[in-house]
From TrEMBL:
The keyword Metal-binding does not apply. PROSITE patterns: PROKAR_LIPOPROTEIN. InterPro entries: DUF306_Meta_HslJ, HslJ-like_sf, Hsp_HslJ-like. Residues 42-143 form the DUF306 domain. Residues 1-18 form the signal peptide. Keywords: Signal, Stress response. This is Heat shock protein HslJ. It holds the Pfam family META. It comes from the Bacteria. PANTHER family: HEAT SHOCK PROTEIN HSLJ. It comes from Sphingosinicella microcystinivorans.
C-alpha cells in the first residue's frame, strides 16, 4: 500500500514539473518592427528587384519634408510628389525628369526603378538601417542611408527640381546638342543657333517625334533607346552619343 502511494505521489510531482517547465519555456524571439523612414533624408540604391545597379548607373532617392521626392534614377534626374503615412508610401504622377540617353542596361534599370516607385505601397526601415520600398507586386528597392541632402543642410525642404540638360550627339555629319523639355525639343546646331521642334500630338507607341517641317528628331524608347535626325525629306539618320 505504501509503495502504491509513493508511485502516485511521484507521478503527480512529475506532472507538476512538466507543466511548470512548459509555462517557463521562453517563446521564439520576435523580429523588431519596421519603422517609417525619417525625412528629410537621402538614400542610395543597393538592389533593384534583387539585382545590383548596372555599371555606370547612379540611383539616389531624396525624401523632402514638403512631400516631394527626387534624385537620380540611373541615368536621369527625377522629381515627384509623395505621401508617407507610417510605412504606407505612395508616389503621385506625373514623375518629371531629364531625358538623357545612357547605355541600354542603365536605361532598362531606370525604367524598372521608376515603375517600382510609381507602384510603391510601403516604405520601411529595418533593424539594419536599410530602407525597403515595396511595390504592389511585391518587388522591392533596397537603399542604404547617406544622411541629409548633399549640401549637408539639415531640414532642407525638398530636393531641387531637375533641370533637363543637353544631350550631345552626332547624327551623320552633324553634331547636335539636344534638350527635351515642355513637350518640345531644343536643338542647338554646330553654329550655336537653337531651333525649337514641337512634339507631334496624338502619338502612340514607343517613339516620340519632334518636328517643325524642316527638321525632325525622333526619340525611340523601345525596344532600344536612341535618337534619329533628318532635315527636310532626307532619310532619318541614327544618332550616336558624343562627349560633352
Amino acid at each position: 500500500m505504501k509503495c502504491g502511494l509513493w508511485i502516485v505521489a511521484a507521478m503527480m510531482a512529475a506532472g507538476c514539473t512538466a507543466e511548470t517547465s512548459g509555462q517557463d519555456a521562453p517563446g521564439p524571439a520576435s523580429s523588431p518592427a519596421a519603422t517609417p523612414p525619417a525625412v528629410p533624408a537621402m538614400w542610395v540604391l543597393e538592389t533593384l528587384a534583387g539585382d545590383a545597379p548596372a555599371p555606370g548607373a547612379r540611383f539616389q532617392l531624396k525624401m523632402g519634408v514638403d512631400n516631394r521626392i527626387g534624385g537620380r534614377s540611373g541615368c536621369n534626374s527625377f522629381s515627384a510628389r509623395y505621401a508617407l503615412n507610417g510605412t504606407a508610401f505612395k508616389v503621385y504622377p506625373p514623375m518629371i525628369g531629364t531625358q538623357m540617353a545612357c547605355p541600354e542596361a542603365v536605361m532598362a534599370q531606370e525604367a524598372t526603378f521608376r515603375t517600382l516607385l510609381e507602384m510603391a505601397t510601403t516604405a520601411s526601415v529595418g533593424a539594419d538601417g536599410k530602407l525597403t520600398v515595396t511595390s504592389s507586386d511585391s518587388r522591392t528597392l533596397r537603399f542604404a542611408s547617406t544622411g541629409e541632402w548633399e549640401s549637408g543642410t539639415a531640414g532642407s525642404a525638398a530636393p531641387p527640381m531637375p533641370v533637363p540638360s543637353h544631350i550631345v550627339m552626332r547624327c551623320g555629319t552633324e553634331q547636335l546638342r539636344v534638350r527635351l523639355v515642355d513637350g518640345q525639343a531644343e536643338v542647338v546646331l554646330d553654329d550655336g543657333s537653337a531651333i525649337l521642334l514641337p512634339r507631334l500630338s496624338g502619338e502612340t507607341g514607343s517613339a516620340e517625334t519632334y518636328t517643325n517641317g524642316r527638321m525632325t528628331l525622333e526619340r525611340q524608347t523601345s525596344p532600344q533607346h536612341g535618337f534619329r535626325f533628318a532635315r527636310g525629306r532626307m532619310a532619318m539618320m541614327p544618332c550616336i552619343l558624343a562627349q560633352n
